[in-house]
Structures are given as structure tokens and as C-alpha cells.
Amino acid sequence: xxxxxxxxxxxxxxxxxxxxxxxxxxxxxxxxxxxxxxxxxxxxxxxxxxxxxxxxxxxxxxxxxxxxxxxxxxxxxxxxxxxxxxxxxxxxxxxxxxxxxxxxxxxxxxxxxxxxxxxxxxxxxxxxxxxxxxxxxxxxxxxxxxxxxxxxxxxxxxxxxxxxxxxxxxxxxxxxxxxxxxxxxxxxxxxxxxxxxxxxxxxxxxxxxxxxxxxxxxxxxxxxxxxxxxxxxxxxxxxxxxxxxxxxxxxxxxxxxxxxxxxx
Length: 264
Prior knowledge:
three-stranded antiparallel sheet; alpha/beta
């Protein structure tokens, strides 16, 4: 008697098919975290196996777009990790302004809804040096970039923001806070995939915070190599408070403070 077995895909087969379809290599991400996240979406969409879910994505452009945006984890707020921003304001930013005459090129990589690059702009304005910075902020999620460009936030994004900054740089309308135009126009938002697209060149400061934690070690090293190549000597790289570079010398970096590295 012949038995007929229905083919079912495992996560590895889904990753291969997805890469052939989109060019995005899910192997770069930590498998356990990413598979769990994808399975959660599969449950919500009532697609119980990977093969069925892949066909659902392949047959629907809106579904694929939603999935690509879903892959990015967008947790952000102004002045996230206050101690880091205090160190940047008191030591690092004045040092950069002194060491590099002219315009400072700043890249916020994985910027989410824009809270990080806008926070940087606020600080430089309080230092009287907003005119000396050019800030590029990138993310692969087009929806969060739309939110970032609007500069409109509810209070949950401002929980750690000192009141003097809220009073000076935001206009409140109802439950929403609207960022002043002079800050908004200093940040250029662009769609960008860290794994594929060329990095921003000639950087004096790169912020890539709470992004490495989702990538495998070899992917982290690939991104660090690219950062090092575009970071000017004595330039600064800032990573997340739960992240750590185990071999900074390999990328011509040395650790200045807990999450702040400088290029030799």
C-alpha cells in the first residue's frame, strides 16, 4: 500500500525560497528569534505552515510589503538610554565639533521612527551647532520612515525627554507632539538595507543602536567592517547598551565608554 505524504517546509526551506524571491537573506538574522517572530505572524494570518505562508506572500504584493516591514523591530524613543546621551552631549559632541572644522556628517542606521536622529539634532541645537551637522537617517521599513518624516509623536516616545526639550522643540496639539520645523528639516530620511545597500560615506559619527542584537556574529562583523570603512579617523560609533564589540581592534576601533567606540 502506497502512502501519500504532504510536503511540509521547515524554516530552512522557507529561508531559501524567500531569498530567491526577494534577495533578502534571512540567514543573517539569529534563527531562533526570527523564526519565532515569523511564526507569530503566520498564526495571525492563519497560515499554519511555511510553504502556505510563502505562497501567500509571493501572491500578494501588499502582504509581502507588510511582511518586510514586520521583520524590522521598531522600538524607539527620544533620549533612550539617558546616560549615553549625557556622555554624547557633555564629551563626544563638543570633541567632534572641535576636532573637525566644517560640517559633521552623521548617520543614524536603523533609525526606526526617527527618535534617535531627532534627539541628536536637539542636542546639537542646544550646543549652538545645529548648522554644522548633516544628519542622514536610514531604515528598511518604509512605514516607520513615513512616521519619522511627519515628526509627530505621542507621549510614549517622550517619556525620557527632559521637560525643557519638550517645551522648546515641540508643539502640542491634543495628545500629539509635533516637532519644530527647524529640527525636522535637519534630518534626511532614506530607505536603506544595511546588508545590501552602500553605506553613507565620510561619516564623523555613526549611531547603530539595538540593531546588532538581531544579527548573527558574522553579519555583525560584516556591518562593522562597512562602518569602519566609511568612518573618518577619530570618528565615533555608538551601539546599543545591550550590545558589545568583542574584537574592536579588527575594525580599527577602541572603546571610549560603555557603548561608544572611536576609530583609531
